[in-house]
Amino acid sequence: MNRPYPRATNTRDTASNTTTTRLDCAKQIVTTMVSDLMLQSSANEVCVIVLKTRETSHHKLAAAGCDLDEEQMDASVPFPNLTDLTNHGVTKPSADLLRKIQNVQSVSEQEASALRGDVCDGLILAADALYERTHGKKYQRQIVILTDAEHDIVVENSQTLLVVDALRAMDCRLQVVGFDFLLSASYEQPMEASSLSLNTNAPKPAKTEPDTVSTKRLKKSTDYDSSETEDEDGFATCTQKTELDRNDPGQILYSTKEDREQLLSSLAEKTGGDVMAVSTLRQILQVDKGRSLKKATKRKIELRIAPGIVLPVRSLKMLSKETTLGMKKTAVIGTNKSDTYSTAGNDKAEMDDVRNVYMFVDPDHKDDVVEPQETIKAVRYGSDLIPMSSYDYEGLKSSANYIPYLEILGYTSRAAIPLVALIGPPYALSGSDSRKACAAISALAKSLEQLDRVAICTYMKTKGGDPILGGLFPLSEPQFKHAARLMFLQLPFAGDMKQLGVVRSEVRFGAPGTKPK
Q1: Could you give the number of structural domains in the chain?
Q2: Residue 311 belongs to what domain range?
Q3: Which of 96, 112, 310, 327 has CA 20 to 30 A from 162's CA?
C-alpha cells in the first residue's frame, strides 16, 4: 500500500508535483464511505479493520482473555496483527473514528511480508463482528475490502468455504476495491451452494441443496490446528495454522498477484458482490459515487397532471436540514451542596431521569383528584369538545390507505417566479418502475425546459394536512442533454409575500463640500 500515485503529470509544476500512496487513497475512500453513512442515517453502523498492523486490538481479545501488554504475541492471541479502529465491533460511527482512519500508518514492505493478519483473517473477523451485532435483526449487510493484493495469502479451503457459507446465510455482499487490479467484475446473484469451491485442484465439498444454506458461525480457535469443532451453541469453529503445511491438500498458497486477484473475485462471485479495479485517482474518487438509492428511501406519491391522468411516481428529498442534538433533563443527587458534582471518589453523583407527573382535578371540587382511568380524550371542534374513545381516536389519525399526491393547477412563465420566492427543501420526482410514468415525466420536464415554463401545483403530504403550494421545475443533470426529471420547490402564498422596496431619492449630491441640489 506504499506505492505512490502522481498527482501532476507536468514535471515543471513543482508546486503541485506531489504524490499520494495507495494507503492515502484507501483512507480517503473509507472516510468518504463512513461520512456518507453518518449523513444518511443515525442508525447506520460500521466496523473498520486494518490488516497487517504491528499491534493487535479488536473485540475478540477481551473474549479470549489475552494480555495486550506482552511484547511478543504468542499462539493464544486470536486474529493477530489486526486492528479494529472501533474496538467494539460493529457500532455507530463517530468523528473520533474518522480521525483514527486518517492517523493510520503503513508498515514497510519487508515487515508486512513477515506479519500475519491477511485478507482472509480480516474477512473472518468482519463476518464474526457482523454476526454478533446483526444476528436475528433486519440489517443491510456489506463487507468492503480495500487491498492491493501484494502479499502472499495462505487459505484453508474448508475454512474459507465456511466464511462464504456464513456470509450467504446473512445475505451479506462482498465488495472488493482492488488497487491496480487487471479486471473488474459484478455479480448480481450469489453462486449456487452446490458450486462452491476455491480451485479445481482442491477436493470439492460435499454436495448440498442450493436452497439450503448453513447458518454456522465463524470463530478462530486459540490453538492453531487444522481441525473443525463445534462449540456448545452448535456453531462451527474455524482454526488456522501458523505456517503453510505443504502436505495438507486443504491449504492453498496464493503466491502471485494474479492468483490473489482471482481468489478475491471468486469470493465476490460466491456472495453476489463485485470487484472494482482502480488504477487512477479519478477511478478511486468514483468508488463511492453514483450509488443507486434503495426504494425504501423514495416515497410513493401520485402525480395528477390533468383530470383523468394520474401517474404513480416516487419523491426523494434532495436536501435535508441538520438539527442539533436535543438536551436531556437529568436530576443530579450529590453528597455536597455545591453546584458542581464530582464523578469519582466519595462525591460520586447519582443521576436519574426527570419524569413529568400530571394530576387531574374536578373543576367543581378542587380537592378531588380524578384518576387516569376516569378520563377520556376529546377533539376540539370549534368551541366544543367532542369525547372520543381510544379506538376512534387512532382511527381518526390512521392514514394507512392514504397516498400523498401532487396536483398540477396550471403553468406560468419562469420569469414570473423570483428566486427569493423559492423556499423549503427540494424534492426530485422520477417515474420509478413505471415506464409510462418515466415517459410522462421526461416529456413534461423537456417541455418545461424548452418553453421556459413552471408548473404550479399543490402537494398534500399527509391526510388532513394543509396543502403545500409549489412549483415543478425541470431538473437539469450533467449526464443528460435535456431534463429528464422534475424538481418540486415550495412557493409562498400571496398573503405571505412581502414586497420590500426602496423609495428613490430625488436629491442629487455633487462634489464633496458642495450643497445637495
Answers
A1: 2
A2: 298-318+404-494
A3: 112
